[in-house]
Amino acid sequence: FLRRFFVNFPSAKQYFSQFKHMEDPLEMERSLQLRKHAQRVMGAVNSVVENLSDPEKVSSILALVGKAHALKHKVEPVYFKKLTGVMLEIIAEEYADDFTPEMHSAWTKLKALIYTHVTAAYKEVGWAQ
After folding, report:
1. Which residue ranges does UniProt annotate as crossing the membrane (predicted)?
2. How far apart are CA 68 and CA 41, in angstroms?
């Protein structure tokens, strides 16, 4: 999903010194750093999903992600909306036969939840665009 994200939104690569100059999608796919980052992202998404019944835990997880990306990485928050959109596209493609309207609705709600909490963390730390 990160490969597609960077192909669709090449400006997002500016935040990644180790692969910001990669143009070839196959080179991106082979990048160990890119894979590790994708695993961290999916690990965070998995933690959110596993803790949906605990709003405080979800808020805590996403606050950590948001604050790190605002303060340390200086990533524009709109990229979270774009990234979760790419994730939703890929899930819908990979599970097309099983991707019901209810599943689409659930993933769309998760996408909105992630973006809402992350942007709240940005506001909390005084992010100025």
Report:
1. none
2. 13
One-letter amino acid of 69: H
Contact of 59 with 53, CB cutoff 8 Å = no
Report yes or no: 9 and 82 within 8 Å, Cβ to Cβ.
yes
What residues contact 5, with CB distance under 8 A and at least 6 apart? 12, 82, 83, 86
Domain that includes residue 100, residue range: 1-8+56-128
pLDDT (tens digit per residue) in 80-103: 999 999 999 999 999 999 999 999
Residue 121 forms part of a structural domain: yes
pTM: 0.89
